[in-house]
Amino acid sequence: MMNRITLIILFLVFNFDVIIGQDQASYVNPFIGTSNYGATYPGPIAPRGMVSISPFNVAGSKNLPLEKDSQWLSTPYVHENTFLTGFSQVNLSGVGCPDLGVILLMPTTGQVETNHLKYGSTYSNEVAKAGYYSSTIDKYNVKGEFTTSTRVGVSRFTFPKGQSNILLNLGLGLTNEEGSMVKVISPTEIEGMRSVGSFCYNSPEAAYPVYFVAKFSKPADTFGVWKKPAKHEGVEAKWMTYNGKPRLMKQTTKMVVGDSIGTYFTYKFDKTETVEVKIGISYVSIDNARENLQKETDNKSFDSVYEETHTKWNNLLSRIKVEGSSEDDKIIFYTALYHTLIHPNILNDFNGEYPEINRGKIGKTEDTRYTVFSLWDTYRNLHQLMSLVYPQQQSDMIKSMLDMYGENGWLPKWELNSTETFTMVGDPASIVIADTYLKGIQDFDIKKAYEAMLKSADQIENNPLRPELKDYIEKGYVTTDNEGSVSKTEEYNVADYSIALLAKELGEKEDYERFKKRSISYRKLFDKNLNLLRPRNSNGSWHEPFNPEAGANFTKNIGFIEGNAWQYAFMVPHDINGLKKLMGGNKAFTNQLRMVFDTNQFDMANEPDIAYPYLFNYVKGEEWRSQKLVNKLVRKYFQNKPDGLPGNDDTGTMSAWLVYSMMGIYPISPGSPEYTITSPMFDKITIQLDSKYYKKKQLVIEREGKNKGKINKILLDKTKHKSYFITHDKLINSNKLRIILGNHF
Fold this sequence. Notes:
The protein is globular and about 80 Å long. The protein has 745 residues and is α+β, with helices and mostly antiparallel strands. 29% of the residues lie in helices and 23% in strands. It has a 9-stranded antiparallel sheet with strand order 4-5-6-7-16-11-10-9-14. It contains 20 helices and 34 strands.
């Protein structure tokens, strides 16, 4: 009786937060975004983790039409697919190009089979939580459970009686790079390497290794390595009996190198048994991978690793506590916040070592070296969210960018594991740095940062961030001699405005005036007859023919990158009042903005127009349109189901939009420390503020009235706030933002 009571007490203590509704991590649904090309995966990851485990179900004809080689697919898992070929140990979340998705574990039973198309299986009973995933591999009646620490993946397989196998496949993956090495150290340990890279098929010369060490909780009865060599033709083929055929090298402890290689560990069980596999990862060396494994998980059970990771997730997610609204709203909110805490992720090993960018050298940090900077996406809202809620992380991200500048002479554009992919356009790092500094996060080398920003903005020759800078400076716009000319002009304008704001803050008056002037040069591309921006040729003439709708859905348009003229029509967030004047005033501006939505030109999954729903706040009397529209878009595109994202999460950018939108504020102009206000979707939002950076302990946003009503009044503390805009300083130095709603729209 006493033992039973003790167990009940322990259960209540351990689950107290859950019982009173304070376990924010329990609201995370990792299946959200695993369909509709959201490019997320349901498997576990620690906050900002180097390692993540995902079920790999995108290989083989049984997964058509969403098979990895049948179309442009950038995720290891698609919810609609049914054929599983393993569990990858390093993955990317919410990206637009395939990479990583390698080092696949797969449990099987019976005779060893090394062809993934033959050993693959359907699966069932999927369970996904923050830091945990499990499923049943149907063909073998094996239960697989997975969790991670920051740098180690932990798998637990429950096998039935009989022969059981754990395969480690180094040939399969999402990357188009080839080449692996593996060595069995003992019946309980494997070490090796897998080559990856060529993100978006750019810079194939920048391929790099992922090192790993795998340790098994039980020694294998037998083990081996397999290798499938290339198939030769002609004379060679006549005497090569193994030509193109996989071969097993039993009990070998020799190093094996190849493209299609792997290992197998075999067990003979006389009853149901479990085997745990821990895989440490490093981008520096095998020794570091082994140290990562030992330091983080060596003496820890699967359950203890999961408990620690779950606690880490809950601690971070509970920085924002929401009250009121539905359970589904809390699920989509906290899942979105969860997605924003995946990338950028940690690159440095436990000992602080990491590969320097483009130098082939090993660096060492006392802070955190971050990687996966999809900055064309994330400069718009994600980093602003980090500055508000997780400023220490944001500070370390800026320090990582500056270290990259010190290593290769340039700020990052789209950096991945210390390779610069140069994906997308613009100079986004400058925007993020200025935005961060102006929000009061200033514990980084601002002199070095300003130097780096000026270099990218002023160096005409051999500038990888702004390759069209000569025309931009001389003419005020990028010409049609370059693709995406209008988009690039706008992106450079936003960056220049951010530099101007920082220059003003630093007392650099000449730079302030110079970059402020440069920041509005988009006006030279404004066609008053169309009330749209359109491309100009190098001689100043309009490019013909011109179709404003061309360019949507990734179709080609010389003037625009991933969008059309409508989706870029208002992509000057720093100069909306100037744009209003160009368009002919408030009424014309409102009509043109409404046209974007009324003619279905708005694309919720596309970054250039992501802030457009909030732009009605710039016209007095029209603010209600933003409130109604944001609410409508949230309900339409963000839901508690696998296709509950509007498309690619873009390393958390879509999710950051949702987090802000549900809280009732949005960073309307990247680089400028300012938010615009809309209707919150919860009764109360409490943001815990970091005392290292902010004076107040918390910021409270409250909603009074039903969610379907328009805003009648805004109170900052007890004082009426007469604007739909508020500065960052004013917001974080207040106690409460109250938004009072009235009748229906």
